[in-house]
Design goal:
InterPro entries: Glyco_trans_2-like, Glycosyltransferase_2, Nucleotide-diphossugar_trans. The chain is α/β, with parallel strands linked by helices. The chain has nine helices and seven strands, in the order E-H-E-H-E-H-E-H-E-H-H-E-H-H-E-H.
Length: 232
Amino acid sequence: MLNNKKIIVVLPAFNAEKTLEQTYSEIPLDIVDDVILVDDSSLDNTIEIAKKLNISHIIQHDKNRGYGGNQKTCYNKALELKADIVVMLHPDYQYTPKLITAMCSMIANGVYPVVFASRILGKGALKGGMPIYKYVANRILTLMQNILINQKLSEYHTGFRAYSIEVLQKVNFNNFSEDFIFDNQMAVQIFKNGFEIGEISCPTKYFPEASSINFKRSVKYGLGVLWESIKQ
């Protein structure tokens, strides 16, 4: 705990057998009270590895619900377990779990109710191998979103986030998409509900086992991101 806040890390997993153990090994269990892994009907041995690691709460979807659907299960379980701070971390080892303590400290000390780990602050993205086209698309989308909703985030698309429980209770995430646009809907609605988002610079790693979406889905995601911002 930090400042007597119960901290829960949620891992929305899909085919994460090659990276789960490395991700889990860097979670600071000295301050993290529980870890929840939700497996979205993986086709590999993600569940078996999670059990071997003795992850405290393992949930398996009978059928694939999508990235957003996975997170909904994660957050509902964290609410059930009465978390004070919930950290969402992709188990693909693209982001370093070593930042969990710093991110949670910002929330536990009342600095921000939400903290995003940004790949764009500093030079972490390109240095870590982010493809140029993804970097350029990220920058363009972020600029347009900031203009449309009058904010100044460096990145809206990170898969490493920490939330105070008040935010998850206020933002009606169960009504959001089951697809990748879920993350963006979260960010937009956090601002719409009057919360602020802090950011911390995060190094990143791009390698074959790290999760990614293909070009066609990336285009669909980008258009959805802009539409969510325009609606506000």
